[in-house]
Amino acid sequence: RDLHRRRSRDLHRRRRRPPARARAMLLSLGVAFLAGLIAKSDSWKRFTASIEGQVDYRKDYSIALLCAFLIPVARYVIDRTAFSYAAKLLVVPSTRAKLLKARSPAGRSGGKRDGDGLTQDDRDAIRVRVEKFKESCWKTAVYVFFSLYGFYFMSSKPWFYDRSHFWHGFQSNGPNCQWDHSCPSLCTTDEWPGCSTCKFTSDVKLYYVLELGYYLQGVVSLVFWETRRKDFAVMMSHHIVTIVLITFSHWARLLRIGTMVFLLHDVSDVPLELAKACRYANLDSLTTVFFAVFFVVWVLSRIVYFPNVIIRTALFEVPNCSQIEWKRDYCMVAFDGLLLFLFAIHVYWTFLIGRILYRTIVSGKVNDEREDDT
Length: 374
Fold this sequence. Notes:
Elements: H1 2-16, H2 20-40, H3 42-51, H4 57-102, H5 120-154, H6 202-224, H7 232-251, H8 255-280, H9 284-316, H10 325-363
C-alpha cells in the first residue's frame, strides 16, 4: 500500500512538471543562445579589450576568482538538468539490469527489496554510479571547451609551431614589446618582472584566467563535491602544483609556454573522461575505444612531447639575461622544478594506466585502478 502511494505521488509530480528531456533541451538551447548573444555583444568586446595588454595582477586574478565562483554554479545547473537526464537514460536502466542479472537465485533472500527487486544497497550503488557519470560528463565538457579554444587561438601563434618563440618576440620593433620578451633590456634585477612592457593578447590572458579559475574551484570540488578515490592525495597535489605553476608563470611573464602546457593536459583528458562516462553507462565497446584513444594521446602529449619539448626548452633553451641573471635564474629553477614534479605525477599515472591496459587485454574490460567496480 505504501509503495502504491509513493508511486502515485511520483506520477503526479511528473505530470505537473515538464519531463527531464524537455528541461535539458530547453536549458541547452537557452545556454547556447545566451552564449551567442554575449559573444556578439559590445560589452564582451569591451571586456576582451580591457584584459588585453600587460600583466595586471589585480584585474587578472579578480576575473579568475569570479570564474572560480561561476563555474560551480554552471556545473550545478547542467548537472541537475542535462547530465541528470543523460544518467537516467544511459546509466540507471543498464546498471539496474546488470545488478538484477548478476544476482544469483541463492542470494535472493539477502536484503529487503521493493517492487523493482532492488535492495537499498543496489539503489546506493546506482546513485554512486550516476554521480560518477555526471562528474565525467562535466569534465568532458570542460576539457572539450578548453581544447577547442586552445587550438582555435593558438593555431595563429608562432610558438605553437616554433618553441623558440616561447622566449623571443614576434618582431624586433613590435609595439611595446622588446625583441626578447623573456629578457627585457630595460629591466634590472630589482625591477623585474614588473618592469616588462610586453603585452599579451586577450585570448592568451583569457585562457589563463579561465584555467586558473577552473583549478581553484577544482580544489574545493575535489574535497566537497567529487567522489573520493584512491589517488585523492596525488590528484590534490596535481591541482595545487598546477595552480602554483599558473600563478608563478603569470608572475614571471611565461604565458606563452604556459598556454602550451594547458593544451597538452586538456587534450588528453577528453578521451579519458569519455571512456569513464561510457564505463559508468555500461557501454563496454565504447569504453575500450575511448580508452585506446586516450592511451595514445596521453603517451604522445604527456610522456613524449611534454618532457622532450616543454621541459627541455625550459631547462636548456632559455636565453641568457645578464641584467636580471640571478633573479631570473632562480625563477627558472623553480619553474623547472614544478614542471618536473608535474611530469613525475604523469609517470605515476602512466603506471596505473599501464596496469589498466594490461587488465583490459587480459579480461577484455576496462576497470579504473583508483576505485571499486561501482
